[in-house]
Write the structure tokens for this entry.
Amino acid sequence: MLEKRKPMSENSEKIETQRETFQITEEAGLVLEGGGMRGVFTCGVLDNFMDRGIRFPYTIGVSAGACNGLSYMSKQRGRAKYSNIDLLQQYNYIGLKYLLKKRNIMDFDLLFHTFPNKIIPYDYEGYAHCPERYEMVTTSCETGEACYYEEKQSPKRIIDIVKASSSLPFVCPIAYVDGKPMLDGGIADSIPLLRARSLGYTKNVVVLTRNPGYRKTIKGTKVPPFIYKQYPRLREAINRRSHLYNEQLELVERLEAAGEVLVIRPQKPLEVDRIEKDIDKLLALYNEGYQLASQIDFI
């Protein structure tokens, strides 16, 4: 599936990497990790794909990956970058002031209503006519398990799902999909590669937002019983999240070494955090994603 090519010259200004070839077949899938503002890396990757007309039969996105994937599915090149970088600079929609005023670290009213409806309209009709499959991941507060949603017809339900997928625990309110309480998809399935494979998409490109070799630090503290007291299984899912994420990274790396998946990840030391507001850092990470994606030959 993957063909290694000669590394780039040391004198090149581009990121040193190996050119690879990926064949898009009926079994090809695209898996998009979340990561908050680190998702601008994914924006760069997806803009490169759109510039080259690269499409996959199936795409699945989590949290920020779900948001960015929607613009990819509607073929709105540059939309995700504009909302994550340009509009962040203009509206400053992340910060503690929103947590104090709205009990949310981000201005969700702006992000999920004003942006897609007025400021940078989302092409719901274009998405509805998109022939490829697209799933977004949420975590059920009741079961602590991942939920996978496909929706192309109802704009309200699309927004409900992507908002739930992006609702971080502790700093965002619980969201609802079809009346069911949901939070960030990354709690239960941060890298939904197994989901793609279970549906028959066994040749995948995985877009990560962490450096090679990254692992979460395993902390000894647990969510106290008075937080999410109605949802004990959600607390359990949050408590095991770091372990699960590290296991998923190990799976990705094993499959990558075996040539069963192609992974696009930041190569430079990461300077962008989940709620980053430094525009220069965000632009640099976006450009890195675009550049690394350009090193892949799709056939």
Observations:
- The first helix runs from residue 40 to 52.
- Residues 29 and 204 are 5 Å apart (CA to CA).
- The longest strand covers residues 133-140.
